[in-house]
């Protein structure tokens, strides 16, 4: 049976519509599948930083955590981060050197000085010299049975409260203190003898060279400070 041109055109039209419908259906699937590629991925920065142990600024702010200083985070030694209390500006008195007093324990002396004391290479458990790790040039502390009994100044700018230290002259010291000064028979030292009741067991001694100039000074109780070399009987 022959079809008319109109019937043929109608079938072609129907076929074309079917083809368009199939193509349209395929394009819709493709578009749906591509939606996942345009969706923003979930943010993983916080989780990855948490797993690595590194907190972001937002994390810190959210948690209300205080920002740590370097010393809080890593820990540092007191003598390298905090200036010592004991310094070259402190002076020798019959009580000791600045905040370090005769009669303090070693721990008390270190706490008062604000710095660690290092033991000398010689000495014994009974009698040992210690020097501050920083803060007081030329100062050393004689410790007997755990107690500070004497302070020696062998170099540096530290003087007595009246200003007499290394480099001062014998004549100047004797003139300043008068009858309170006792000169050794060999004229190589001067001793300040206090007259007040609270200090009468204490002595300040300046060692003098042949030219009459101070080379060192020390303070302590009479029995401990009189020998020129400390810990010599130990």
Question: How would you describe this protein?
Answer:
By secondary structure, the protein is α+β, with helices and mostly antiparallel strands. The protein contains eight helices and eleven strands. It has a domain at 85-225: protein yfey like fold. It has helices at residues 5-38, 45-51, 57-63, 70-74, 78-81, 106-113, 170-177, 222-225; strands at 92-93, 96-97, 100-101, 117-123, 127-132, 139-144, 147-153, 181-183, 189-192, 202-208, 214-221. The strands form two sheets. An eight-stranded antiparallel β-sheet has the order 4-5-6-7-11-10-9-8. Strand 8 (181-183) and strand 9 (189-192) form a beta hairpin. The radius of gyration is 44 Å and the shape is globular. Residues 18-65 and 67-79 have low confidence and may be disordered.
Give a quick precis of the structure.
By secondary structure, the chain is an alpha+beta fold. It is built from 8 helices and 11 strands. 33% of the residues lie in helices and 23% in strands.
Q: What's the pLDDT, averaged over the residues?
A: 78
DSSP E strands, number: 11
- Give start-end ranges of low-pLDDT stretches: 18-65, 67-79
Structural class: alpha+beta
CATH architecture of the domain at 85-225: Sandwich
Which helices and strands occur, and which strands form pairs?
Blueprint: H1 5-38, H2 45-51, H3 57-63, H4 70-74, H5 78-81, E1 92-93, E2 96-97, E3 100-101, H6 106-113, E4 117-123, E5 127-132, E6 139-144, E7 147-153, H7 170-177, E8 181-183, E9 189-192, E10 202-208, E11 214-221, H8 222-225
Antiparallel strand pairs: 1-2, 2-3, 4-5, 5-6, 6-7, 7-11, 8-9, 9-10, 10-11
